[in-house]
Amino acid sequence: MKSRIRILPDQREICTGYQWEKRKRELRERAGGICEAFLLPEEIFNVHPVHVLEEIGDAHHLRPRSKGRDDRLENLALICREVHILLDNRKVQWTKKVNADA
What we know:
Blueprint: E1 4-7, E2 13-16, H1 18-31, H2 42-47, E3 58-61, E4 76-79, H3 81-88
Antiparallel strand pairs: 1-2, 3-4
């Protein structure tokens, strides 16, 4: 996979490969180990107060990727997995399927 930052005419950035990993490290530095739920809509913040992350946390796009991906730090929040699942209403993607025959 190529590693680059592509800057679009409207100034959105799309990071791939190493550059995306670097951007996530910058995000973790900015957050300082705190779930940045306070950057999210008020209804989420009221339900889930800011707390120290127990794990690394997930990079969450404030403006959904489906509505024009933008990987700039201003559009990212480091949030805990619990809040991310609430927001995305999705299954955790990193879990492995267990083989029943094994």
